[in-house]
Design brief:
416 residues, alpha/beta
Amino acid sequence: MRLRHPGGELVHLGYCTNVHPAEDLDGILAQLDTYALPVRERLDEPVLNIGLWLAHQVAAALAADAGLTLRLRDELTARGLEVVTLNGFPYGGFHRPVVKHAVYRPDWTSPERRRYTANLAHVLAGLLPDDVGEGTISTLPLGWRAHWQPHHLELAGRQIGRLGEELARLHQLTGRTVRVAFEPEPGCLVETTGDAVRYLSDLDPRHFGLCLDICHLAVAFETPKEALDRLAGAGIPVVKAQISCALHAEDPADPATRAALAAFAEPRFLHQTRREGRPARGTDDVPEALTGPAALATGSPWRTHFHIPVHADPVPPLTSTRPVLRSALAALLHTEHPVTRHLETETYTWSVLPEPPHDSAGLAAGIAAELEWTRRELLDLGLSRPVAGRPASDPSGPGTGQPDREHELRPNGSTP
């Protein structure tokens, strides 16, 4: 959906389709009808933005055939959907029974990662709406931290440099700007905004920037405004933000808290867990945090990298990091100009929740509820819905928000 910032700039809000398993064009078109179109209709929006996830096979096929890309664009338009951002983090197989560390391969030391991202850039340039000149692609933050040596940084720098040249050529050919956004994540070489300053400050901001995943920010116990100030001071633009919440355990020594957290242990994805501190210390998954030789100490709150629906609360005594999300949204959008104009909800974990949605209708309802909550928050921050018949970039009066409601998580993604 399109919203207008008080400064007059267009802000895009959508949801990321990495929640869906399709990895070929026919499957992607089917998921548009099953999920994206019902979500748009539930929200009563004329146009809904979706952050497409394209696995490497379909990205290569689309990049090699302009006709296929045009077909995808036409299919999106026919459904009232548009794309300004892609998720280029998972290379493929994101919904296999076990993903865990595989999501970080290939990393930025490999030409496969560069080729995949370049293909995505070419596809995105062909999908952008006529009135939008810039697109973004989120990607992994160099790679998983284990075994990184100085020569790996040199290899990654070489691949990123070559990608920058390709992005410059793409701009010359199409007039479209595509920026690749590295997404700090727990356990990766770039886990925090401090790591981003250390490893990413020399990248050309015309082609590269940062994707701020607010769940990841919360797990690292970073304060949003301090994090954004740190990035701005280093000249690293935030070109995309993912609207997401983590699990918060205020008293991890409490047996009820530990039992509730154990219910979120599941075999598909990693759920890195951190203990509050400077720096935050932690484990690569929930079971390791709770038991065994690497078990986390109690006495300070824990946070877990499990993307829970932003509008809903986990079973007490666990809570959501929604306060961090609200603070981040205010920091991103309160200024004269928005820090970023590409926002997407990214709860890819619906299927592995302790009580997941029962069916596709339940999932669509849950995704729509997340977007509805986020839309209300943005309207409360002063953004407005474009007026029918006026260009979306035309400034107009402030929007009006609605009373906030918090909800408990329901099995089908709905709310009471």
